[in-house]
Amino acid sequence: MTKSFQLKDKVAVEQRGVYYEAVVVSVSDDKPGQCKVHYKGYKAHHDNWVPVEELKPLEDAEKEGLLDQVRDVLTAKKRKKEQQARLREIQKHNKEEDDDDEEEDNGTKADRKTGSKQKKKKRKHQNSDSEEEDEDENHRKQETKLKKSKPKIVKKEAFVELEKDFYNETPQIRILIPIELKAKLVDNWKAVTQQSTLVKIPKKPNVNQILEKFQTYAESKSLYSSGVVKLVTQNLRDYFQKSLANHLLYDQEKKQYDSLKPRQKESVCTVYGAEHLLRLFTRLQDYLGYTNMSPRHAEISVKCLADFLKYFQVQQAQCF
């Protein structure tokens, strides 16, 4: 049965295996079986005509969870823009403070020069009033010191704190891959892209099995408090599941992935192994940079991931 959509219908559009939220903006008898859609979060020049077979009602797509990945990316982009705007505001405010200080310094110097000239003139013509002029000059110097010190102490330090808070909210996350594992990445890239030698799937051990063995190892060594390793390994599974099809596969591997059964695609952690799991770590610091982790949580997670890579390096003969 052919699907039918009307103007302003909210839909989900499938593009290379990823679903995007959109709204129907045009239908035409000249283009039967097609609708023109506008993608939410994108500009109008991205609007295009799409076959109705690639459209789903938005409610159905939301029930199936097809829009979660794109929404996560859009939310991350929005958060990053807000943080950049806030940093620009901080820098602008600090610059304005510096300009105000410079203008005040210049004004103070001009006042001092003017006062000095007036004093010389008075001394030439009124020697009897010299003591009163000295007192006025001392009073003027004290006022100048108070004016110069006040804004720098109060306003500047307060805004430096905001800048520190900004960086604390977005901890810088770096994951260093050992040289031996980097060599594995390069060898695998050459084999797939230059020699068309694909990794045979299903792979043994698979991603789930590798992570389970590391979890058992870390818990036996009491490296972390209860639940930390379990949470980190589960997050790795989630990232791997969501990013494999669109970010971790080379073009030569797409056909192999398309041949998988739907049930296998729903659990790629049981199909793919060490080669593809290692590729995840080349993108992981970008993914983690979009999360709302506290600095302490980020520190523990990165340490656990580093320990996993050390374990991975020692156990590479059994994993690859």
Note down, in words, how this protein is organized.
The structure is a single chain. This protein has a five-stranded antiparallel β-sheet with strand order 4-3-2-1-5. It has helices at residues 58-63, 68-125, 130-169, 179-193, 207-220, 228-248, 254-258, 262-265, 274-280, 284-289, 295-314, 316-319, and strands spanning 10-15, 18-27, 34-39, 48-51, 55-57. Helices cover 62% and strands 9% of the residues. The protein has 320 residues and is α+β, with helices and mostly antiparallel strands. The protein contains twelve helices and five strands.
Question: What can be said about this structure in brief?
Answer:
With 320 residues, the protein is an alpha+beta fold.
Chain-wise SSE layout:
Layout: E1 10-15, E2 18-27, E3 34-39, E4 48-51, E5 55-57, H1 58-63, H2 68-125, H3 130-169, H4 179-193, H5 207-220, H6 228-248, H7 254-258, H8 262-265, H9 274-280, H10 284-289, H11 295-314, H12 316-319
Antiparallel strand pairs: 1-2, 1-5, 2-3, 3-4
Total helical elements: 12
Round the Cα radius of gyration to an integer and report it. 32 Å
* Physical arrangement of strands within the biggest beta sheet: 4-3-2-1-5
* End-to-end CA span: 47 Å
Structural class: alpha+beta
User: Quick one: how many beta strands?
Assistant: 5
Low-confidence stretches: 150-170
Strand content: 5-15%
SSE pattern: EEEEEHHHHHHHHHHHH
Instruction: Give the overall shape, derived from the CA principal axes.
Output: flat
Mean pLDDT score? 79
Helix share bin: 55-70%
Please describe the biggest sheet, giving its number of strands, its sense, and whether it closes into a barrel: 5 strands, antiparallel
